[in-house]
User: Fold this.
Amino acid sequence: MNKLSTEKRAQILRCLVEGNSIRATSRLTDVAINSVIKLLTDAGQACSEFQDKTLRNLSCKRVQCDEIWSFVGCKQKNVKPEDKHKMRGDVWTWTAIDAETKLVPCWFVGTRDAGAAYHFMHDLAGRLASRVQLTTDAHKPYLSAVEDAFGTEIDYAQLVKIYGNPERSKYNAEVRYSPAVCMGARKAKVIGQPSYEHVSTSICERNNLNMRMGMRRFTRLTNAFSKKVENLESQVALYFMNYNFCRIHASLRITPAMESGVSDHVWSMEEVVALIDVKSN
Assistant:
């Protein structure tokens, strides 16, 4: 079987992290769709393993967490009874971000229940070197998951947002396709002594927008959804590899990995391709 050159593989990965779909990437690079998917899964596994080993003992001070919705195969209401044992329907990607360095230390693709929150928070706790201030939204599974993972060694607060409930109508497109109006927010201390000045989820929510713009699978109201959860996981791992190590942050003027001290240079996509070759050898 012919092997794509490093330059061609780097070109494909650049397309995938800049918001292009699999088919668009195939057309732009003149590479078969199956080859693009195979490269994506290989790159995703390599990037996931590299970041899992590298993003450890982090000196984060303020961390924000949130979940972003997508779906695999079909939306939850359309999942067939015979497919309920498969990972189809609504899927949530849990993310954490350091408010100062903008580094994303971990993420988790799964459900939005207590089990997923438990796994995600224990993963985050294992990557931090010291006590941090943590802010999340008012999603209830966070309460027990944070306490179980951190105990009392954390300053934790929730930002409780209050949304309006406008009258919805199938004839009112503006209401139908727009999120509910936020009427206000309340800062609630949960554990420790969090600084109320820094109780915020705005950076994590802005990161959610970056994900929707940078990954075609997260675009709303389109047919660009993932067909397999493994492909979604690979895309997310590749995206955060590019975000943490390759792309210069607009406000930092360096990459988040450099700002947090886990990297000493801006990675090229060819270096990411090299991770795939190392893993396969």
